[in-house]
Amino acid sequence: NAEYGVVAAVGPAVAALDAKIKAQGDKVRAGKGSGASKEEVGILVAELLQLKTEYKTLTGQDPAQSAPQKQTKQQKKAKKGPAVKIEAGVTRLCLEAKKLEDLPNWYSQVITKSEMIEYYDVSGCYILRPWSFAIWEKIQAWFDIEIKKLGVSNCYFPMFVSQSALEREKDHIEDFAPEVAWVTRSGNSELAEPIALRPTSETVMYPSYSDWIRSHRDLPLKLNQWCNVVRWEFKHPQPFLRTREFLWQEGHTAFATREEAAEEVTTILELYHKVYKDLLAIPTVKGRKTEKEKFAGGDYTTTVEGYVSATGRAIQGATSHHLGQNFSKMFNITFEDPDSTTGEKLFVHQNSWGITTRTIGVMVMVHGDDKGLVLPPRVAKIQVIIVPCGISDKNAVELKAHCTAVEKSLMKAGI
């Protein structure tokens, strides 16, 4: 089947197995698209992986990755509708789509024509241009100051995760398994053990927590890192909102008591609420995720949710998780009970929390209009433009000097 990859071996058994893999792949995509539960999709994925294993056993090589049926040029053209007629002398610098009529096309035009994003040749990955990265820097600067007031310190852990470490927490890895990207080769040589690119860093950081925490005097341990993560999304990627690589901060803290940990979960959630309200001018609702929606391996997850009126849907803004003792038991993160005379060990109570560059996409969708990008002043790269008027040969020098004085005054005020 040329469309789904050339069958490597000749014979009806291989051809039949190739067809089964294609059909099962279609079932997985249909399940994800119809909103099937995580358990139902997991069963479909497991069956697909089993078929691929059988194929490799039979042929000695991996099956070609299947893809949805390709559309012809005529089908694509019919789906898009009639082409936009451009009148003579009219440029295409402005938006050609209306927000309420064609949101996906409007969103794509806004972020590219405003020089926020540049598309990249790896699907799901994007270039953050200075306009958008400046917004992330302002969010980062504000939030970094606030968490340091809480005693949080910044650090950095490697982006690579060993397979054995990633698989130590069964529930955790099962939730992320379809999205994990693996490094399997170095040059032309196969690695002895595949290495994952972090989808999140619990399994990266907690072996070190186990080494660092011995006594109640080592607690609380509050660390945060600003980094990138990779999640190889199956769904259709969208710049800022759903990408295969994105920037975020992830905080990982450990406490002696559940009460301390639970208090921090709420405190961090309030900071995320303020990021949206005070910096991005976006109202959010604070709440708690359902058991099915909570972070894999955690006790409970709290969230701030925004509302995009153009779609009539909520969108997750940031999350603060209470992990309980689930990970501390898995990674043996313990401390000596200060009230024990026998040196009894207690497991720590942990949290993790994060906010991502998705914030920028939410801001664009909430504030942008049919004229283009609208930025809240506190995160705009440029907040004021000084336009000299009435320039002549007689007053040019004086007017420029006055404009420069106004500029210095505004910059001194933090604008």
- Overall morphology: globular
Percentage of residues assigned to helices = 25-40%
Largest sheet, in brief, is:
7 strands, mixed
Low-confidence stretches: 1-10
**Strand line-up in the sheet with most strands:** 3-7-8-14-11-10-9
Cα gyration radius (Å): 26 Å
Beta fraction: 15-25%
The string of secondary-structure elements, in order, is HHHHEEHEEHHEEHEEHEEEHEEEHH
Q: How far is the first residue's CA from the last residue's CA? A: 61 Å
Q: Which structural class do you get from the secondary structure elements?
A: alpha+beta
Number of helices: 12
- Count the E strands: 14
Q: Averaged pLDDT, please?
A: 87
What can you tell me about this protein's structure?
The protein is of the alpha+beta class and 415 residues long. 39% of the residues lie in helices and 21% in strands. The protein contains 12 helices and 14 strands. The strands form 4 sheets. Strands 3-7-8-14-11-10-9 form a 7-stranded mixed sheet, sandwiched between helices. A hairpin with a 2-residue loop joins strand 5 (181-186) and strand 6. Helix 5 (130-149) runs antiparallel to helix 9 (258-279). The longest helix has 22 residues, at 12-33. The chain starts with 11 loop residues before the first helix and ends with a helix.
